Amino acid sequence: MNALLRRRNFITLLGGAAAWPVAARAQGRAGVRRIGVLNTLAADDAVAQARYGAFLQGLQQAGWTIGRNVQVETRWGAGDPDRLRTYAAELVALAPEVILATGNAATAPLLQATRTVPIVFAIVPDPVGAGFVNSLAQPGGNVTGFISNEYGLSPKWLELLKEIAPNVTRAGIIRDPALVSGPAQFAAIQSMAPSLGMEVTPINVRDASDIERAIIALARVANTGLVVIGSAVVAFHRHVIIALAARYKLPAVYVEGAYVDDGGLISYGADFLDQYRRASGYVDRILKGEKAADLPVQAPTRYELVVNLKTAKALGLDIPPAVLARADRVVE
Fold first, then answer.
1. In this structure, how many other beta carbons lie within 10 angstroms of the beta carbon of residue 325?
2. In what order do the strands lie in the sheet with 170-175?
3. pLDDT of 277-312, one tens digit each?
4. Closest Cα to residue 256, out of 300, 200, 322, 296?
């Protein structure tokens, strides 16, 4: 079953995740626990709904039923930092007992709004470097969660690009400059480049126009590929990146399988749906009395390699059998 069907199944199973907070507000009453959720994507984004569905399903399996013993207040940032700051303040003002945050872009404004309401994050690359936690083992403060990937994974993206497109000698590393993890991630990728006979260039993007200018410029140089590092900005504009990579026939490696389902060439990274399931476990534990400060930040436990053969064919690439043999999913 492909990821798109899985997304649809989550929403079907849960009776329409986007509508649940409305029902929850209508049924708020004494004894019902309150959870906040701050998403960085738009409410109609299939990836965001799949992640949200995984979280709600995890809550349901832990015994939490919307409208009976819990209500969920959800805000959708749609990739807009100002909107995320506003929604962070709104959620904190509602006095939830715990808030789920997606990535740095949601966690940072929440921490500006509160140092007491517990926060559980998902898809944060370097929570220590960002100042969210004191350490992975002992977060301290009011926040804990799940990191998106470890720095040791970063060079593998470049290796994978070279493996599927041997003629590539130059790679643009698409990244969000707001992420404090950016320099360390780029350094890890850069350390691998000489052994692969490649040059790498950091490409900072903040919006769709940045992305378009950068990819058009990269496409002017022959034998160029892309490594696309995840962030709220990149995820929100992923369709732009995928379309431009296809138009200019640039092989690109992404960090999440959802990009490949949407037409990207190949991805290797953590299973983010699994992070949201696990995040529901932390939220459950906090609702039952544990403190975020005492719950260690966890690394991914599941990684997946996803390949899109249709996109490979359009780019004139033959995916090596060794890569296909390692793939967890193949989109055809």
1. 7
2. 199-204, 170-175, 224-228, 252-254, 266-270, 303-308, 329-331
3. 999 999 999 999 999 999 999 999 999 999 999 999
4. 300
CATH of 151-269+304-331, one of 2.40.30.10, 3.40.50.12780, 3.40.50.11690, 3.40.50.2300: 3.40.50.2300
The two three-digit tokens of residue 24, written as one number: 């929850």
Helices of type H across 46-80:
46-61
Which residues is 120 bridged to in the sheet?
100, 144
Single-letter code of the amino acid located at 136: L
Residue with tokens 């260690």: 296
Q: Which tokens hold the place of 151?
A: 């720095």
Q: Give 241-285 pLDDT, tens digit per residue.
A: 999 999 999 999 999 999 999 999 999 999 999 999 999 999 999
The architecture (CATH level 2) of 3-148+271-301 comes to 3-Layer(aba) Sandwich (3.40)
pLDDT digits (tens, 9 = 90+) for 129-146: 999 999 999 999 999 999
Domain boundaries, the chain: 3-148+271-301, 151-269+304-331
